[in-house]
Amino acid sequence: MLSEVAIAGIYVPPFFFYACVAVPLYWLARAVMARSGLLRRVWHPALFEFAVSLALVSLLILTL
To answer: TM segments (predicted)?
Structure first.
C-alpha cells in the first residue's frame, strides 16, 4: 500500500515521486515522437502529450 514519505518533517505523497520519475521518461518519449513525426499527425498535440504523460505516471504506479 502506498503511504506518505517524510522528508525533513514534511510528508510527501508517493505520487510526487512517481511524477518525478515520469518526467525524464516523458521527455524521452516526446523527443522520439517529435523525431518520428507523430506529433504532426495527431489532432491536438498538447492533448496527446498530456495523455502520454498521464499514461506514463499510471504505468509507473501500477508497476512499482
So the answer is: 6-29, 41-62
